[in-house]
Amino acid sequence: ALPTAEEDTIAAIVTGISQGSVAIIRLSGSEAVQMAARVFRPGGKFKFNWGPESHRVYYGTAVDGEENALDEVLLISMLSPRSYTCEDVIELHCHGGGVCAQRVLQACIEAGARPARPGEFTLRAFLNGRLDLTQAENVLQLVQARTPAAADSALAGVRDGVGEAVSTMRLQCLQLLAELEARLDFDEDMPDMDMQRLKQSVASIQQGIEGALRTARQSTLLRQGLQVAIVGRPNVGKSSLLNAWTRTNRAIVTDIAGTTRDVLEAGLVVGGVPVTLLDTAGIRDSSDVVERLGVERSQAAAAQADIVVMVIDAQVGWTQEDTDIFHSLWGNGANTKGCSVKGLSLLVANKQDLVKTEEEKSQVISGHSVEILGIRESSGLNEIERHSDALSHQGTAASGADEVSASIGSPLPVQPVYNIAGGKNSKLEHMNMSSQLRLPLICRETFQEVVFTSATTRQGLEELDAGILALAGAPDLAAGGVSWSVNERQSEALVRAHEGLMRVSESVSQNLPIDFWTIDMRSAIMALGEVTGDEVTEQILDNVFSRFCIGK
Ligand code: GDP
Ligand code: ZN
């Protein structure tokens, strides 16, 4: 049985505390009107006929038990069932700033109201059938949204959302279950089950579930955002890039340096996704390599990041120090042992504005040694490996086995090969390279995206945005019209529903007795019911509503 709403009348300040010019106290419950009558004295020229009409505004004074005036207030009545909670709701709008609201709330409590628990208004709205559980969860998401895209998605979830879609699927399952059970009970009298139709129905419900599950990524991105760590040796322009990227000179919003970890954080929004930048800036000059490179700080930042952005100097190219940093974070290239980077990796070649002109570059390229830093998947390197028998692994003494020298004598369809010395337009396309290539293989698999930027001219920042979003697998959320998405709790239940249906179709295929099918069908129905809240336990409700703030 579903938990039912408690009978008592609750009260809370529903606006942000000590901010704003207006604060609102909300009373909800069967005695809201009587309690309001104890704290509210109508004023002005309008006669106040107690009790109030629904959906009207009354002006007056809030008083305490001794009739002392506490504040001038507006009373708004929303009587059952036309209120947020479906119960009688009275709101008292008083002056903001905290004190007035606290005093009026106190008066309400002395008049018999109980302080509301976190999310209790919304819980009542759910228990009284005004919202399904997914809508209630989206109310919370709406309040907590950090970007317009997140708010759009939450609003879509409050309005029609996943609940409606899942309810429909659940009804379809219930229908199928009824047909199956009818055959269990009255086997002889019933026509044979149309297997083809049953299978089709199950498959189409499964597709619906899969569709809903596909929104989970968007949901996670919008709700949790992305943690992006910026690492790199000193002076490559990490801080400048961070500043340029956040498009403000005061990019560093939260300075947590010193005490716990020497990582600075900044917030920005990339394509609708809230991004927290973790900068390993402020690395001191030191003769100690480990300290100079801020290895430990970088490791800490990298370990908690979804995406690690390694910045190098486009003008200088890849250096031994870069290799050192690389090893300290990514381990030995393909070998992920000792790797502190948990997420995805993007390489930024900054100071692009200092890179030589086209002409100067071509001289570098037609010279002998071309440093190739990264090669996109299915491009040059594979081709090189396939085309060249001469490819040989010759680890260089300095940096270990992560560099390969290859002598290539044939024309190569080399696609985007990133030549750091060359910078932006360094895709060496269809070149006849009979020169020696030095390939830091370490970068080959590590950096899924390579972007050239200039913190000074702000060039390449859009590419950086695009690179981050591509890595994160983010749909284009900035485009607007973001639709609902399923949260973790809903996904988890949807996955169980999907598994149940999977077993149903297996049982059908294997011609197992109908009892088997009904068991799995029931578990799918149960899981779908958990999503919408049609089947829900106290524990699930506690879990959902404890995340709310008081007054929501
Ligand atoms: P960090 O130590 O990696 O954080 O590097 P900083 O952001 O402190 O930059 C080091 C120096 O490089 C500063 O003098 C910056 O002005 C300069 N710098 C950073 N980015 C660029 C860039 O894109 N172009 C140019 N020309 N200079 C840059
Ligand atoms: Zn810096």
Which term fits the overall shape?
flat
Topology-level CATH name of the largest domain: Rossmann fold
Look at the structure and give the mean pLDDT. 76
Annotation, overall tally of beta strands: 19
**Unique bound compounds:** guanosine-5'-diphosphate, zinc ion
Strand order of the largest sheet: 3-4-5-6-2-1-7
Structural class: alpha/beta
CATH superfamily of the largest domain: P-loop containing nucleotide triphosphate hydrolases
Tell me the strand percentage band: 15-25%
Distance between the termini: 25 Å
Biggest pleated-sheet summary = 7 strands, mixed
Based on the coordinates given, report the CATH architecture of the largest domain: 3-Layer(aba) Sandwich
Task: State the helix count.
Answer: 19
Percent helix: 40-55%
CATH class of the largest domain: Alpha Beta
Instruction: Using the CA coordinates, give the radius of gyration.
Output: 31 Å
Domain tally? 4
Low-confidence stretches: 248-262, 282-286, 361-439
